[in-house]
User: Fold this.
Amino acid sequence: MDVVPQFSTADLTDAAPEAAVIELPLRNFGAHFRFAGQAVTIKCHEDNSLVKEAVAEAGGGRVLVVDGGGSLRRALLGDMLAEQAARNGWSGLVINGAVRDVDEIAVMPLGVKALDASPLKTEKRGEGQRDVPLQFGGARIAPGDYVYADNNGVIISRRSLL
Assistant:
């Protein structure tokens, strides 16, 4: 996996004020607090079928952005899917929703930002959409946009900022 260059989202937004900020209280769950890559988008609600399919693919340093509608009832990512994402070269995941197995995910070489944790898994119904523009936290995230995440927050840019 490629090493993520050192950056600060605060410095990136100073240099590129057009970058959108996801204005949500996202928490760090993975071992990598700083990660970046081009977005692959998923929109789903309490069903992580498409997340499971995506992390099984070669990540190529990309970031999986999942809009779960902010639901904290069911976790869209657990330790098995996070482990698969790390093994397959995903840089990280940004989840507008919940995760579980937080102690296991905390030591994985992966960036994971989500709203909170929930012990409940999702039901796999095969529902959701992939590679669609998302809108949450005051930001629009389109497939292929550039995602930058660190302890300051998550920003989105149509162009590479590094």
The chain has one domain: 20-157. The mean pLDDT is 96.
